[in-house]
Design a protein that fits this description.
9 strands, alpha/beta, two-stranded antiparallel sheet
Length: 306
Amino acid sequence: MKRVVFSSKLLHPRYWLSWFAMSLWWLVTQLLPHPAQLWLGRRLGNVLYKLGGSRRHIAEVNIAKCYPELSEQAQADLVRATMQETAIGIFESGMAWFWPNWRFKGKYRVIGKEHIDAARESGDGVLFLGVHFTTIEIGASIVNLEFPISGFYRPHTNAVYEYVQAAGRIRRNKASQVIPNGDVRGIIKALRGGHCINYAPDQDYGRRRSVFAPFFTIPAATVKAPAQLSSAGKARVIPWITRREQDGQYVVEILPPITAQLGKDEYEDAVTINTLIEREVRKNPTQYLWVHRRFKTRPEGEASFY
């Protein structure tokens, strides 16, 4: 685990264009009112939908596979809404990383914090099991206003983006740190030290680290790490989700621990996690990150979906 330290190497001229883009992002996020950013995000999402491209294609495939009962028009409507929410997520990531704390006042509520309080009172670490809704960045930022969470994440290849991302994710709480996804020892040590570690398992990390388990009835490569980390770190597994409601308010819902449901075998653990995630996605399908290739890795001999 580590705090994020600025390096003078980031001032090299090759990074100036990246800093310019980040400055524009910061400026838009700071100057525009929240409703205007949501409106602009929807408009941008409509443009992305009309342009097509790989992300729309991925969303179309995922939604067709997961919602075969929907008509073609209903599937297309869900894809359009997904592209809108994905674009809004860009603005919400800027809010998460750049907004001053006071701008969050009155814009969110947290449900289920007693599950975290119980773990902290007992000294247990928490594997904070997230779901990749488009609101996940702003949700994590809100959580850090309430209690510290450290992020287990994949470093970005662009050094400037990496710095802004990592610094933005922990800036709201001095006790929060970041853990690169290769530092398994670091995450276990942190969990044993009573820390709350944010980990989202609903992405395809390849065959080696996964077991196939149904997600919307489709075999999906599902990481084995949550149960392993919970056991090695002697930590509770507590799921959480974030949604944006119709009035623009954010709700962070912390669900009851599922620790007792894990540790049976790798397949059953994956089924438990995928069933939970699918249940939450079905409640709020438009804000799920359908543009991710969730079914990228296929069972041996099965053709790619994409």
